[in-house]
Amino acid sequence: MAKQQDTKKLFENLSGAGKSIGVLTSGGDAQGMNAAVRAVVRMGIYVGAKVYFIHEGYQGMVDGGDNIEEASWESVSSMLQVGGTVIGSARCKEFRSHEGRLKAAHQLVLRGITNLCVIGGDGSLTGANLFREEWSGLLEELVRQGLIDEEAAQNNSELHIVGMVGSIDNDFCGTDMTIGTDSALHRIIEVVDAIMTTAQSHQRTFVLEVMGRHCGYLALVSALACGADWVLIPEMPPEDGWEEHMCQKLSELVVSCLGFDTRVTILGHVQRGGTPSAFDRILASRMGVEAVLALLEASDSTPACVVSLCGNQAVRLPLMECVQMTQDVQKSMDEKNFEEAVRLRGRSFENNLNTYKLLSYHKADSELPNSSFNVAVLNVGAPAAGMNAAVRSAVRVGIKEGHKMFAVNDGFEGFYKGQIKEITWGDVAGWTGQGGSILGTKRTLPAKHLDKIAEQIRIHNINALLVIGGFEAFECLLQLYEARTSHEDFCIPMCMLPATISNNVPGTDLSIGADTSLNAIVETCDRIKQSASGTKRRVFIIETMGGYCGYLASVGGLAAGADTVYIYEEPFNIRDLQSNVEHLTEKMKTGIQRGLVLRNENSNENFTTDFIYQLYSEEGKGVFDCRKNVLGHMQQGGAPSPFDRNFGTKIAAKAIQWISRKLKESYKDGKVFANTEDTACLLGMRRRTMAFQPVVQLKDETDFAHRIPKEQWWLKLHPLMKILAKYKTSYDVSDSGQLEPVTQVRPKKAD
């Protein structure tokens, strides 16, 4: 047997030549659908296929004519930042009939379209699957009716279907997030934040109704993200006597008879509108590219698949298994088997619900367990949006677990100076939506102050430590772990939560704060691109933060539709700069007369932002002019995005539960003694799971000189940005192509 030369599966070997792909959006619209359409069109053209827009969903497929139109590279320009769906969507009764599907098949065969990419909800995808199952019968019928000949039937004998779920409700089983959900959460949270200020001014109670049909995801995650006092969702109907419980809880907030003012706000279609969030653009772009790959690899024997997100990984699942599971949820709810409904909804929904329950009803102090442990929480490094949500969650879960919680101001600087005080349930009210770091944060490392820090641990009898921060927090935990040999006071459970806009911490794919920062970058890029629409022939050079980590530039570039991104992780020289200028010169000859270039602040010490700006200005003379923009600290500020609030809340709750377990395990002879590697951990998201990893084991994975992990998952997304900007590049698709049963997607719980 010949040895396998290379384990990498490269997509250069997949050709779309001679294939035609139809892309349609169906059912309710969702923000991010346009990003998905753009990715399908560009990836399809890139691999040599013809791509067709099918306007107005299945109705356009049935009617044919101008509704089915060949797409060009330029025809999807400026789509990325637009909400809704540019190619239109409609609910089509005709397609539900056999006669309608026969017409649709005829229209597709006329154009040789045998690959369909359907972006919609479970109804749209079920329809597509039925269409595929009937395909050969429909062709036979068309031949019998003389509408097509045998040769046409032969050439179009197989129909391949790949689905992407576009729905703000996030009600489709098999994927953690559907396209549009994150943007809908953005709309909800913007409104909630605005309502909060008026509610506090008048001591009013507000009741908000959100969308979601039979799925409580939007309500549940919004409740987590804004710290709501009560949530009503179909998966968790209130128990008898809930009104009294609710009044008890609210009177904790307003100490008076509950005769106070109540207002109702129904958000309605606001949730579906507006520009897509950075998350939805990236999700949709990844899904769109993955969908084209799935179509290229499809054969007659592979079932129709749906492209899903599991943790941080794109996966392919059998479409009908997911649809069946989605229908099973409704069946369980009808039978009032709510536990089963929650289980079927998937691990993302389950985690959110469990976290909400943990944080919800605060009993009187006398009813709480008493663990007699003291746990300290502090922020380290630069501020990151979502830190406060994490602190709030940690404090409240800690109190519910029976611990006394202590807040440390100004990181380890405040620690050695003794700025440590007990923090209660009420102290952290309203923290979820606050940007920056309320506790204060400093970059000071503990190494020079070990004796004083050890002394403060003794004075306040601190039994465990939760450190929330970026690369400095990782270094702090390492220093404390290594100091255990000389200071027994550091032999306590310690956990770190990654919180930094740079997303440069080893052991995790994502950090608290990075999503908010990406949204700030993308919003600014949108405005900058718009400013060029009048002037034409203009290229913008934009500098992003991130230290040596190119995450913000690279992923921000993918979400903003950049032409080029310069990052430290991908070395570039003067010839590369020259070819980028030539690439933009070619672009200016088309209808798209603007360019966007992102440069990470430390991508190259000699090719500075000024240098690149001057080079482009000189080389582009007569073809385009240049402007430059250094985004600076606006990337660090602002209210946290729903994702960062939710991520911070969930991982902090998980960390405190881990700390509780470690405290119990290490409590012997009246004191806590924890000196093993697995008692100083970082909690991070790795591909599909949340994992606690000993910091000492992450040392080998870290480039300390440049403060970045040696391997970074998002570098796999970097070629996507290039492909969607029309650069020839290599793209490793080793992770793709495995069709998995839905049950396998649910990951094992990682401790």
In short:
Substrate binds at residues 167-169, 204, 211-213, 263, 269-272. Catalyzes the phosphorylation of D-fructose 6-phosphate to fructose 1,6-bisphosphate by ATP, the first committing step of glycolysis. 41% of the residues lie in helices and 16% in strands.
What does this structure look like?
By secondary structure, the chain is of the alpha/beta class. The chain contains 24 helices and 25 strands. The strands form 6 sheets. Strands 10, 11, 12, 13, 14, 15, 22 and 23 form an 8-stranded mixed β-sheet that branches. Helix 1 links the parallel strand 1 (20-25) and strand 2 (50-54). Helix 6 (181-202) crosses helix 7. The two termini are 41 Å apart. Residues 1-7 and 744-751 have low confidence and may be disordered.
What's the layout of helices and strands?
Elements: E1 20-25, H1 33-46, E2 50-54, H2 57-63, E3 68-70, H3 98-111, E4 115-120, H4 122-144, H5 150-155, E5 160-165, H6 181-202, E6 205-209, H7 217-226, H8 242-253, E7 262-266, H9 278-297, E8 305-310, E9 313-318, H10 319-334, H11 338-345, H12 347-359, E10 374-380, H13 387-400, E11 404-408, H14 411-416, E12 420-422, E13 441-442, H15 450-459, E14 464-469, H16 471-482, E15 494-498, H17 514-535, E16 538-544, H18 551-560, E17 564-566, H19 574-588, E18 594-600, H20 609-619, E19 625-630, H21 642-666, E20 667-668, E21 671-672, E22 680-686, E23 689-694, H22 695-698, E24 702-703, E25 708-709, H23 718-724, H24 742-745
Parallel strand pairs: 1-2, 1-4, 4-5, 5-8, 6-7, 10-11, 10-13, 10-14, 14-15, 15-22, 16-18, 16-19, 17-18
Antiparallel strand pairs: 2-3, 8-9, 11-12, 20-21, 22-23, 24-25
Helix pairs in contact: 1-9, 2-3, 3-4, 4-10, 6-7, 7-12, 7-21, 9-18, 10-11, 11-12, 12-21, 13-21, 17-18, 18-23
Active site: 169 (proton acceptor)
Domain Phosphofructokinase: 21-252, 374-659
Binding site for beta-D-fructose 2,6-bisphosphate: 443, 500-504, 538, 545-547, 601, 627, 633-636, 707
